[in-house]
């Protein structure tokens, strides 16, 4: 199974900050990497697929990069509605696996 | 607008069974693969199973293989998850998710339902 390791597991930031979350795969997954946002008590929301392609309707302050084993999700200017938990997921091979999540909290 | 609505969750005893449903609307259901993903209380996301658009191909996590069965009725725009021999560690919110293509593989969820809670306890 491919293990997905996210870091940090949590972070505190202020509105307007640039935030970067890292996701590392235990083996090469090419660009088969998706990012999701989840708010408390809500379903996950798709943000990015193919490592860097924004899902329709997602604000442009979100961006993704990377290929192979190392990936990043960047929020260029954190907004109040961005405080949430973020997950990466590889879909290169079965079983599909998720990272442990990164909780973005208000500083 | 794409909409997914899960139902069928509730309390089950260890060793018992439940059947979850996911009613889909707002898209051509028969053209897209679907998946179930679960989240134990306070934990992260865990993939459970996927099914191709036609229903011909299914894929399961090792943790549920042989106990859970995923199916779909394209005439009813509905997805199912039959869960047998339930265990305490199956306790979770179960989400259905729509894929981006017809294949059960290379799956990522583009739209998710609101989830249904399954609690396994005596």
What does this entry look like structurally?
Chain A is mainly β and 107 residues long. Chain A has strands spanning 4-7, 10-13, 19-25, 33-38, 45-49, 53-54, 62-67, 70-75, 85-90, 97-98, 102-106. In chain A, the strands form two sheets. In chain A, strands 2, 4, 5, 6, 9, 10 and 11 form a seven-stranded mixed β-sheet that branches. Chain A has a four-stranded antiparallel β-sheet with strand order 1-3-8-7, with no helix packed on it. Chain B is mostly beta strands. In chain B, the strands form two sheets. In chain B, strands 2, 4, 5, 6, 9, 10 and 11 form a seven-stranded mixed β-sheet that branches. Chain B has a four-stranded antiparallel β-sheet with strand order 1-3-8-7, with no helix packed on it. The mean pLDDT of chain B is 97. Chain A binds chain B through residues 32, 34, 36, 38, 42-46, 49, 55, 87, 89, 91-92, 94-101, and chain B through 35, 37, 44-47, 50, 59, 61-62, 95, 100, 105-115.
């Amino acid at each position: 199974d491919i293990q997905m390791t996210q870091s940090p597991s949590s972070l505190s930031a202020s509105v307007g900050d640039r935030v970067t979350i890292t996701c590392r795969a235990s083996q090469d997954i090419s660009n088969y990497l998706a990012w999701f946002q989840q708010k408390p008590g809500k379903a996950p929301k798709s943000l990015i697929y193919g490592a860097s392609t924004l899902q329709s309707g997602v604000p442009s302050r979100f961006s993704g990069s990377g290929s192979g084993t190392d990936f990043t999700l960047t929020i260029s200017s954190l907004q109040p509605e961005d405080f949430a938990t973020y997950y990466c997921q590889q879909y290169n091979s079965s079983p599909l696996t998720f990272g442990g999540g990164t909780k973005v909290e208000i500083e | 607008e794409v909409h997914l609505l899960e139902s069928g969750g509730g309390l089950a005893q260890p060793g018992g069974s439940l059947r979850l449903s996911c009613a889909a609307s707002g898209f051509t259901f028969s053209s897209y693969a679907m998946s179930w993903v679960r989240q134990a209380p306070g934990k992260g996301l865990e993939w459970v199973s996927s099914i191709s658009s036609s229903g011909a191909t299914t894929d399961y996590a090792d943790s549920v293989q042989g106990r859970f069965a995923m199916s779909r009725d394209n005439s009813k725009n509905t997805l199912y998850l039959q869960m047998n021999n339930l265990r305490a560690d199956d306790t979770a919110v179960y989400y259905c998710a729509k894929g981006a293509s017809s294949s059960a593989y290379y799956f990522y969820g583009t739209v998710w339902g609101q989830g249904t809670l399954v609690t396994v306890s005596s």
